[in-house]
């Protein structure tokens, strides 16, 4: 070999180029074709069935009553999530507190609200005025100074927000606590060594890193809350999207078209929320250096090579 320096007196042979062979997936193609055919058949069949009432779907999709109900559903979702996140943050701090009383109270709250169905809780909040109808001032179990009757009846919208947010706070507390615990304690120690205060450490070190863990489940909780608003009928509050669609269908005897109308609105809102969740996750994943594994996308290679033995990706 000329012009190429060698480090050994023994001449090396040029390695033979590896010929990559693309894996074939015949059954994957067959299954995909079958699914596409079934989907097309379902769409064609649904388009011809009179029970779906597509004419009524187009008639009520942008009805003013439906539009107003959709706005109320959004308000229920936003108010409940904001209050739920704030309460969840407080409960998460209480769970992480060294004070045993605060920790026990937070645990009891989570045990009750996570252990009972949200529909049952909403029924309970709808009957709250029957349980607490007066305020008693005095020494408990000894002397009563005065009794003030409660004549104010809270609006059903307010009761619905309270019921949904209190339930959501129990789940957000666990999400926030998991996010805060995911940050390596060495990060806080390094921040303290640099002279940062507790608030500076939380704002610049802990919270930005924990958001990468908190954001994805919080986005799921927002989408779940949007759909959970259909349960406010237990309060009973019927001005939300599902309740209003149900009332209109009771007048027009068209339950299926109105269910489709409500479903389309829910799909529209959840699609927007999913797009926002994607960009939020992307925003808080900067600098991590790990991309989300994509299943079925990319160069097809032998699984024995990619999994690296017993470990593998998944």
Summarize this, please?
The chain has 314 residues and is mainly alpha-helical. The protein contains 12 helices and 2 strands, in the order H-H-H-H-H-H-E-E-H-H-H-H-H-H.
Description:
The protein is mainly alpha-helical and 314 residues long. It is 65% helix and 4% strand. It has helices spanning 26-48, 54-60, 64-96, 100-115, 118-126, 128-131, 156-181, 185-193, 198-228, 241-252, 255-284, 303-306; strands at 134-139, 143-149. Strands 1-2 form a two-stranded antiparallel sheet. The protein is flat, with a radius of gyration of 29 Å. The protein starts with 25 loop residues before the first helix and ends in an 8-residue tail after the last helix.
Helix content range: 55-70%
Q: Rg, please? A: 29 Å
User: Which class of secondary structure composition applies to the elements?
Assistant: mainly alpha
Which strand order do you get reading across the main beta sheet? 1-2
% residues in beta strands: under 5%
Shape: flat
Number of helical segments with 4 or more residues: 12
Q: How many E strands?
A: 2
User: Strand count, sense and closure of the main sheet?
Assistant: 2 strands, antiparallel
Low-confidence stretches: 293-314
Mean pLDDT: 83
Tag the structure with descriptive keywords.
314 residues, mainly alpha, two-stranded antiparallel sheet, 12 helices, 2 strands, 4% strand
What is the topology?
Layout: H1 26-48, H2 54-60, H3 64-96, H4 100-115, H5 118-126, H6 128-131, E1 134-139, E2 143-149, H7 156-181, H8 185-193, H9 198-228, H10 241-252, H11 255-284, H12 303-306
Antiparallel strand pairs: 1-2
Helix pairs in contact: 2-11, 3-4, 3-7, 3-9, 3-10, 4-7, 5-7, 7-9, 8-9, 9-11, 10-11
């Amino acid at each position: 070999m000329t012009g190429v320096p060698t480090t050994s007196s023994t001449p090396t042979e040029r390695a033979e180029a590896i010929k990559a062979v693309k894996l074939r997936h015949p059954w994957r193609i067959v299954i995909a074709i079958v699914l596409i055919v079934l989907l097309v058949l379902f769409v064609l069949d649904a388009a011809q069935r009179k029970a779906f009432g597509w004419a009524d779907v187009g008639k009520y999709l942008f009805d003013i009553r439906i539009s107003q109900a959709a706005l109320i559903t959004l308000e229920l979702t936003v108010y409940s999530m904001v209050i739920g996140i704030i309460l969840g943050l407080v409960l998460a701090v209480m769970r992480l507190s060294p004070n045993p009383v605060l920790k026990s109270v937070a645990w009891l709250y989570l045990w009750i609200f996570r252990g009972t169905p949200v529909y049952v809780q909403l029924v309970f909040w709808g009957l709250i005025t029957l349980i607490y109808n007066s305020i008693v001032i005095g020494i408990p179990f000894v002397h009563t100074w005065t009794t003030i009757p409660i004549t104010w009846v809270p609006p059903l919208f307010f009761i619905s927000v309270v019921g949904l947010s209190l339930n959501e706070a129990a789940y957000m507390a666990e999400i926030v606590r998991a996010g805060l615990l995911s940050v390596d304690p060495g990060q806080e120690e390094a921040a303290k060594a640099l002279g940062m205060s507790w608030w500076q450490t939380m704002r610049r070190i802990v919270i930005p890193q924990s958001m990468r863990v908190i954001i994805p489940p919080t986005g799921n909780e927002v989408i779940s809350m949007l759909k959970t608003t259909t349960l406010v009928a237990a309060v009973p509050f019927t001005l939300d999207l599902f309740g209003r669609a149900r009332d209109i269908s009771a007048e027009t005897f068209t339950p299926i078209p109105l269910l489709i109308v409500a479903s389309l609105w829910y799909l529209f809102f959840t699609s927007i929320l999913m797009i926002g969740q994607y960009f939020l996750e992307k925003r808080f994943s900067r600098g991590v250096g790990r991309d989300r594994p994509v299943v079925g996308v990319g160069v097809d290679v032998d699984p024995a090579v990619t999994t690296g033995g017993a470990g593998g990706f998944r």
